[in-house]
Backbone:
């Protein structure tokens, strides 16, 4: 059986995963430590990629080349946009990933990479510019399993568009621009790059994020990274266990 690949940006987002990973074997490749073991009998490879698109792309490529995962689950914290209805501790599942700042800045505002006319990826007849849709079957599976897991709690589970940025939004104005432009529910710094690499290799990807903050005027005193990471990892654990049954 091919393993399930698990990617977070930083080790603190994968603490619960590692605590539940049995028979761990570690291997360092290209500055990345890969942890391979089993969760409830399922073969799993976990790694912390580092923040940002370059680290995410590098780690995903090495994971695929060296471990040939059947699928990849990306997880960690994310910032929710104000109109999403999400609150701190809630769970968001990506329906598609979007590069939020690849494109052209003109006098009348930002334009996506389609204005340049050169796709970021061409696969068969399909051209990918800023948007990378995720497999609808896996999105539905992740949402359903997560809702079942949290049905007795007050945690909201919502799917929608995620935006990946190189510059985190630290003002309400910027957050509203991205939210409106892409009709998005949250932002992060790695997802689109991982989705891009997964599409190159034809590997299905699921992205699950715990909401650590609402994207507004930046004030980390209002954030709860620990709660976001814990809730997100519990959802990931259930997807690993329940998603591969039958």
Residues:
């Amino acid at each position: 059986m091919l393993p399930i690949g698990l990617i977070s940006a930083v080790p603190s987002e994968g603490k619960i995963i590692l605590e539940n990973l049995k028979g761990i074997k570690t291997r360092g490749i290209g500055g990345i430590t890969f942890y391979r073991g089993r969760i409830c009998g399922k073969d799993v490879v976990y790694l912390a990629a580092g923040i940002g698109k370059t680290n995410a792309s590098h780690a995903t490529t090495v994971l695929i080349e060296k471990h040939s995962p059947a699928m990849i689950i990306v997880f960690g914290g994310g910032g929710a946009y104000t109109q999403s209805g999400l609150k701190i501790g809630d769970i968001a599942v990506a329906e598609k990933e979007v590069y939020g700042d690849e494109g052209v800045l003109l006098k009348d505002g930002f334009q996506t990479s389609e204005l340049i006319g050169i796709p970021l990826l061409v696969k068969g007849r399909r051209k990918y510019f800023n948007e990378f849709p995720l497999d609808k079957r896996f999105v539905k599976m992740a949402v359903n399993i997560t809702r079942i897991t949290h049905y007795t709690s007050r945690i909201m589970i919502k799917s929608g568009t995620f935006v990946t940025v190189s510059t985190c939004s630290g003002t309400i104005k910027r957050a509203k621009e991205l939210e409106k432009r892409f009709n998005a529910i949250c932002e992060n710094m790695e997802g689109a790059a991982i989705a891009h690499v997964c599409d190159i290799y034809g590997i299905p990807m699921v992205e699950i994020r715990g909401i650590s903050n609402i994207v507004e005027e930046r004030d980390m005193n209002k954030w709860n990274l620990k709660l976001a990471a814990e809730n997100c990892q519990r959802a990931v654990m259930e997807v690993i266990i329940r998603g591969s049954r039958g």
Notes: DSSP finds six helices and 14 strands in the chain. The CA atoms of residues 72 and 205 lie 5 Å apart. Residues 225-243 form the longest helix (19 residues). The chain has a mean pLDDT of 95.
